Each structure stands twice: as structure tokens, then as C-alpha cells.
Queue: 2 jobs
Job 1
Amino acid sequence: DTEVTQTPKHLVMGMTNKKSLKCEQHMGHRAMYWYKQKAKKPPELMFVYSYEKLSINESVPSRFSPECPNSSLLNLHLHALQPEDSALYLCASSQVRLTEAFFGQGTRLTVV
Amino acid sequence: SQQGEEDPQALSIQEGENATMNCSYKTSINNLQWYRQNSGRGLVHLILIRSNEREKHSGRLRVTLDTSKKSSSLLITASRAADTASYFCATDFKAAGNKLTFGGGTRVLVKP
């Protein structure tokens, strides 16, 4: 199984809502990533978890809160987002000694 | 920014022609990877070249790496309409941990 599964595929939320994005992989990867991608731009790294511990936070606003409850799951909790946070959110996983990263299909988030 | 820069930003070719895109980066890397993205969804890993390698082939793909110039190129030979996608280089910088950073991308259109 070389799949990274992200749910939901689409999400529309208001600026006062709280929602969560979920990501799951069963490849035994111990590094997991969240990226944000705006239209016609490259993915921008947000967070990296290594062995279920947060290892990189790219100065992401606190309205985005990551969580890695176990080695297969990665969540991104969203609260009080702004319209400019609307984007495609991509989850990825890899071996800790970084080689090939496997990406999910993303969650397309719209903040209204 | 440590991110790779890519050129051209967009490329339009006829089916059967070759497509070449370039990537430049600024600091020492462990490896350089190329990914494809269709229609703003998940990224698919194409090929990885390590910092001590100069050229690598995979099917119709040929990647070169020149660490002295901090640049890489991706050649797609005998292009097909199905190769229409955005292509990104991604670098794993030394001393940066699991930090896979993407270049700006090249949008390739292969016309039948």
C-alpha cells in the first residue's frame, strides 16, 4: 500500500468554525508533512513530524495546529481561519532519511 | 530563499517532441527530486538524483545534476498528451533535516 489518504477532499468553512484535516498512511513512514499550495504556486512546507514529534514548524500562524496521534495519522486542526488561508493542503510521508515523499490528493479548503 | 528556481515557467510542445526544464538552487543538497502534479492535486514522485550523481534515467525521463552550478535539468523524451502537468524540482538541503523544498514549477502543455 503506497497510498496517503487525505480527508475530506473539499472543505468550506466559515471564519469562526473549527475543523480538522486528516491524513493517513500505512507505509511505515516515520516522517509526515503538511504543505499548503496556492493556485499556480509550488507547495510550501508548513510542518514536519519525525517519529511523531514536531521537528519543523515553518513559522505557521497558531490558527493552524498540527497533531500526530500515532505513526500512521497526521491531523491539522483549523480555527479562526482567514479567507487568504484558502488553498490546497497536502499531506505527505517519507522515510525519516528523506528520499521519495508520497503525497495525498490534498484537501481543497475554502474559507468564507 | 533556499528554494529551487525553475525555468521556463511554462512550456508548450507538440506530442512527440522533447521537453526540457531546468532547476537551480542556492545551498548544498543531499539530493534533488522531481515531481509531477496533475490539475492541482497530489504530487507524484518521478525521480531522485543524489548529490554525488551526475545523470539518471527512468523510462522517458533523464535528469542531470551539476552541483558546481547548483542546477538540474529534467528531459522528457517523446512527449505524450498525458505528460501535460506541472513539474517541480524539490531539494533536500543539508543540515535542514526533513525539509523538502519545492521550486516554482514548470507548467507543461503537450498538444496532440
Job 2
Amino acid sequence: NAGVTQTPKFRVLKTGQSMTLLCAQDMNHEYMYWYRQDPGMGLRLIHYSVGEGTTAKGEVPDGYNVSRLKKQNFLLGLESAAPSQTSVYFCASSWGTGIQPQHFGDGTRLSIL
Amino acid sequence: SQQGEEDPQALSIQEGENATMNCSYKTSINNLQWYRQNSGRGLVHLILIRSNEREKHSGRLRVTLDTSKKSSSLLITASRAADTASYFCATLGGATNKLIFGTGTLLAVQP
């Protein structure tokens, strides 16, 4: 059982380039989330989805877009990468919100030069 | 918007000792969750404690919650080298009413 899978695991981009991070879950979860983790700042929610075809802004959405065309996939896009977006990106999923635990992937380490 | 803050930021102990980490939060909660993150990996859910519970156990983990002080503690008994990780508390909050994570406690267990 794979759980939550993120691709790629590592990526280096130049300023202004675009890319898409892919998250896939095989637990039939309704909710999916994208976070970024920076030193000393914990995890911050970028965007989330409460079901197929839905997306919503989190705490730090600027510079990112997301899509949830299929229930099992949640894509995070950077249209024009900036050095400030250098971070580790985590995807998570859950049955619901509130008391439901979130299941995390192992992250994508992204460097913007 | 930081809902939970862990204390201490870093903790180093010897194998077999107990490790205690604290979490303080700002607003009223329905429940509080603890997660572990091993180096280079994603977070793993450890335990959830509801606001009407004062203490909860899971194996070598003991979590307490004091809603009057807006604080929680995570105790790991008889620690092992494999417990070396960062530990985060998380509560619902913010404008989105989604989980907000603290900055974490980095625990190092020396063999």
C-alpha cells in the first residue's frame, strides 16, 4: 500500500521557469493538501481540496496554482518560479477534517536558483 | 499565523531516558494532534487527544492536555535511538480552519 506518493523527489529550477509537482494517494481520501516546510517556520498550508474538482486557498497561496481533476491526484503548479519558493513541499491527504489524521508523502525538495 | 508552538526547540537525551515536549496554543480547540517527522521523510500521525480528555496513552507515548493553560505535552518513555526525529503538535485554526502545525521539537536520542 503506497499511501501518498510525491513526484519528483528533487528538482532544481531557474528563476522564471515553471513546473508541476504531482501528488497521488491510493486511500480514497476526499481531502488533499499542499504544504511547504521552511526552516524554523513549521509547515504552512498552500492550497487544499475537499473533493474531486474542488480547490481552495490556504495560508500562503500566492505564486502557486493547484488542480484536482481526479480524486486520487492533486497537482501543485509554479508558473514562474522565484527564489523565495525554494522549500520542501509536502502533500497530505485525509478522510475528512477535524479529528481525521493526515497522511503525508515524503516531500519534494525544490531549489530555485 | 502560528497556532501551536513547541518547547524546547531541541532536546538531546540518552537512550532509556524519558523525553518530554510541550506545545502551547492560542485559541480554543476541539482536539490536538501530535506528529513525528524523521529526517528526510514526511510527517506521521502519532496520537490525537480531544478537548474533553486530560490524558491519553499509546504504547510508550503519553499525551496530556490542559485546556485551561492552552497547553499539551508529549512524553516518550524509555526512549530509543529510533525515536530521533522532529515532533510537531497541530490544531485546527487560522482563516481556513485547517490544521496548523507548530515549529517542532527536534529530539536526538544518543545510543
